[in-house]
Amino acid sequence: MSDRMGSNPANGFSSVFRRSVELYGDYTQKPDAPRLGAVIRMPSSHPAIWGKAGPAPFRQVDTFMGADDRAAALHAASDLLNSFSGENERVTASLILAGRMLLAHDDIAAADHIIGEGSARPILDRFLFRMSCRVNDAGNEPLYNTLVQHDQADPDVLAALWLRHRWRTEGPTRTLLESFLPEPGVRKGYRRRLRECLALAFRLEAVDIAKALLARFAHLETEYDRILPLASYLAEQGGRNAASETVHAFARLHRHIEEQSAGLTAMIADADRSLAIVGNSPCEKGKGKGERIDRHHIVARFNFFSLEPEYRADYGSKFDLHVRSRLEDEALDQRSVKAGLTIFPLNEFVHQYRNWSYMRQLRGEGANIACFPPDFHRPLLAELRRDASNGLLFCAFVHQLRGRLHPESCFGFAFTDQISTESETHYSDNNPPALNHNWQKEREVFTRLVTQAHPSAPEPAP
User: Fold this and answer.
1) CB neighbours of residue 382 within 10 Å
2) What are the sequence ranges of the domains in the chain?
3) For residue 371, what are the β-bridge partners?
4) Nearest to 392 by CA among 269, 234, 281, 312
5) Interval 357-388: pLDDT, tens
6) Sign of the Cα pseudo-torsion (143, 148, 150, 151, in order)
7) For 105, 114, 214, 310, which has the most beta carbons within 10 A of its beta carbon?
8) CA neighbours within 13 Å on the CB side: how many for 457?
9) What is the value of pTM for the model shown?
10) What are phi and psi of 163, to 5 degrees?
11) For position 433, what pLDDT does the model report?
């Protein structure tokens, strides 16, 4: 790396960048969207790179974009990438810059351009970058088709990823499912693709296709720990694994989630119960709203919230609902077990989540698990062009069921502090923001939700 990059360990740049280069090395060995996401998640918002003490070349690119001088920003990015002598360092820097273009400036075209400047395999990196960040635009399909035509990546990984993306953005349809079914005569391979096809068949209640897949690919019967509806199907319909107690345990988990999810809908729809929705933005610090929050009948909190004494005056201490999307995290699990109900707001959760052994363990520790209806996410996804954050999803759910989102019941929501390097992103820690959200647009949607109300919507309880 060039000396002019400012590798002074005092500002944290070297350690953050070095770790990303290491993660990029892992990604090159087995390219997929989660590994690429790990490369860019932390550095794309880290103050050691984008703050006042960060390396001037990175900040210059960001400053030009903030001033709407895109041409100057791309020129500065090109100069920056050319300053690296090692390929891994150059590509890593291009991915970090691309992540910043998307996170702070919502410019996928600039991100594509920068990846093309730095990458030795730009088509693959652009596609997996878009899948990792949940970008939803017309540029995705040409990239996928090029990768398939030129055999530039594992076709099973690509097909499964593309099927999940289209399912999420277009909705579940039989036409989509049939377009991904294996050709006649194929009886092995495509394990990930087959898994997604079977899950989609259950989502569509296409029992004929599900039965055909299970008959043709015997190994699919063992996937009940990855496809939860399969466990219920085997327990009810029979099969080689139908008598297994493990199958019945997963089937019971499926019933539990369905029951708890119905209970969640009834709870939120009951407008006689006041509801406080407490986000993690530091915007409430010093405002003393803790007692006001705790007076509500129900209090919902998100991800890594804190109830430590130092925050209670501003953020309260009551806690009923835990809304979380991050999975397999012990610190989050401890919060979920203490909650009355844990909500996983992931899109098509029951049909698209793939590690039900973990969820079964969490249930065994005492957590009650619920999710949103499967079709709930799509309107927000279409408007934002990326996944909605947990906070916005929950607010939209409340608005849909109650006819109104009362601003007096919303605390700790700012959205745009997620892309600033001059302030904290959470009141109790400095976790990096997610790259798969359009924070500027989310703020606009939130503002609309708290100003639009159905005429019959009741006022919040005092």
Assistant:
1) 12
2) 3-137, 160-245, 248-451
3) 344
4) 281
5) 999 999 999 999 999 999 899 999 989 888 89
6) positive
7) 114
8) 19
9) 0.89
10) -65, -45
11) 63
Q: Which tokens sit at 300? A: 């919902």
Burial class (CB in 10 A: 0-12, 13-18, 19+), 239: middle
Cβ burial of 197 (10 Å; 0-12, 13-18, 19+) is buried
What is the DSSP secondary structure assignment for residue 44, as one 8-state letter?
Answer: T
Q: What is the pLDDT of residues 109-146, one digit of tens each?
A: 999 999 999 998 999 999 999 999 999 899 999 999 99
Instruction: For residue 135, give the nearest of 384, 378, 374, 434 by alpha carbon.
Output: 384
What is the distance, to the nearest Å, from the Cα of residue 337 to the centroid of all Cα atoms in its chain?
Answer: 22
Q: What are phi and psi of 425, to 5 degrees?
A: -100, -20
Residues in the chain: 462
Q: Rounded to an integer, what distance in angstroms lies between the CA atom of residue 219 and that of residue 223?
A: 7
Give me the residues of the chain with pLDDT under 70, please. 1-11, 185-189, 239, 241-242, 415-424, 430-436, 453-462
First and final CA of the chain: distance in angstroms?
60
Query: At which residue do the structure tokens 């699990």 appear?
Result: 333
